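debug: dumping io for the single-chain case to check the tokenizer round-trip. Nothing else runs in this session.
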Amino acid sequence: MKIAILVGTRPEIIKMAPIIRECQKRKLDYFIIHSKQHYSEKLDGIFFSELDLPAPKYNLNVGSGGHAHQTGRILIALEPILLSETPDLLLVQGDTNTVVAGALAARKLNIKVGHVEAGLRSFDQTMPEESNRIIADHISDYLFAVTDLQVGYLKKEGLPDSKIFKVGNTIVDALLSHRIHAEKTSKILSALKLQTKRYYLLTSHRAANVDDPDALKEIIQLIAKIPGRVCWPIHYRTQKVLGESKIDLPGNLTWTDPVGYSDFLNLLSNCAAVITDSGGVQEEACILGVPCVTIRDRTERPETVDVGANVLVHRNADAMVAALHRPMSPWTNPFGDGHTAKRILDIVTGQHAQPALPTRDTVCVVGLGYMGLPTSLLFANAGIRVVGFDLNEKKVREINGGHCPFEESGIPELLTAALKTGHFNAQTKPAAADVFVVAVPTPHENKKCDLSFVLSAVNDLLPVMKNGNLLIIESTIKPKTCEDIILPLLQSKHLRVQVAHCPERAIPGNTLHEIVHNDRIIGATSPEAAQRAARLYSTFTKGAIHQTNLVTAECVKLMENTFRDVNIALANEFSLIADRFRFDISAAIRLANKHPRVNILQPGIGVGGHCIAIDPWFLTEDVGGDLNLIRTARELNDGMPKRIVARIQNKIDRSVRKIGILGVSYKPDVDDARETPVLEVARILSERYEIRCHDPLVKDWDFELLPIEEVDGWADVLVILSNHTVYASRKFVSPLLSFEKLINAELTPGLRSVTVQARRPRSGTRSRRTNDERSIG
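debug: decoded output
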């Protein structure tokens, strides 16, 4: 086999060096082509000598230029070389113009292409590198991915399993082989008078950061905010922009021309932290255990963020300073073991047997409710064999018969498709599987997390579990549940089962879309367990998958809903203040939100649902009494139904005896009445009035739900508490207290609103009222 190795930039030389050395070791027929996209001696030439690499057989001398200019020149210069040499394989690495031009040239000549570091995605189409990655991946024959995350991205783009190989990253090979040499030979610290761990390293070369003078000024302002010395090896292109724009450098900056690999490695290894916009530096810092702050808002190396090595701050000075001083814990390198080059050459030379299709885990999902059922169906439609386990026999029969047991857009069609595949069935007993997903409700009892359903589900699974299984808890749980309760339970049964927590993040009414498109948070007992869970969810998830530890994942979901609860409480308290001062709360909020940094939510009758009304109690359950903000917000929202009853009574005449309640779900246009604040309003009103309730969506509730014809006309007044769209188009017989008028205070100080009097039928017929008599508020 004859192999051509194409490089063009500093990172490509470094990352291809282990492959070149492995070719030498195996005495393979290979040659190196250098496009010279980086054409400075200090930006590329020095790396060949430092890394003890043979000189390129061909130099294309492309140099600088626009994207079309560079790509076109490489194509033109490369084609006759490939025609003359006729290699069996061209290896390219990364995401540069050199990579995409090389892949195109080889593909058109029917030469196989191997893309090293395939599958990286930032999902930022403004980056030219993103287009280069995607094009190279889709025309390559070998896709050498770094982690399961990239494997998942490639599969979701429809690329065949037979082309995809998870091998790790050659940068680990390069760092491990060269780090000791760099420490011995580099004199850069003494030359720049830098002390170990007493300086910050900055690298910035992205066009969006350094080619635009305004953006570059922001970078300089960032440096000035850093409380300490900063070392910046400045790219020649950036030096030119600094000079032309007459940008002064801050006093805490030590700068130098671009440095060689040994010097850079020494600078990186010994800094307190690195600030960068480079994807490669994010990897290198993560591997070396150096904290990283990335001055971008997206990264194609999300693993560095997931393990806690990296924080994205864009060009926000305050966020950067906070990130530099964040508390740090050790992390595990996610990029491989230093044998990536060996794996790549084993594969291309036929010494590695790639299975035609990797074996997929079988799955048993416990709980076929709002989250468990759609999750089961999505797995099944992705080709995974799934058993759905639920104790409710009626629900199981309905599901197996093709009937969704609740109203939710898209799920009936998904159920029909899953049943046709034969990959899904529901049953009332658990089944043995490779992965178990627990998606049962977590109620609260006396403002505490009731784990009885979760523990019951896990106990039901114990007889069918075996060593090597993965248990994923999707149910919302309080902090430390997995570590303090679930793991000890498994260990007591002598089961070596990995545990992960992947909290559901979807909202009724839009469940299916959000399950598919929202980002996923996965915390696990080990990086391997997290990657296994990520591989499973990547079969259908289009959002990013973020890996972390167990307790962080547990708290993320609780914090999300607590944030919303606290902000709803703020809006509700504003509405209570509006009651005192008699101003239009809706108008006030609308106008306040004209401020670019203000986004006040709308007040309501309270907070319901199975998340926002509960999760803050779980988060604060085991927290001391000195932290009270969250509890205070929760108590304010829990108290809103009583205040709503007072508002209703304030807006109706004393002669009213019959009240019709319209809408009982916890939010408009859904059939979910869990934790709905309407229930408490109904209970309080029922102590003084006759009440009847109607909801077009909810099927079953604590109070009897009647047809609208038995409520409207019977009631002296109708009160809309869940503002379903259907009510907006209906003409009511009974006087109506709309949701908007219920939320807003009176606008005229000292005056009562026009009240509703109880009806006085005449001659056995319904009385006619004037418009004024029928108006509320």
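debug: round-trip ok. The longest strand covers residues 112-118.
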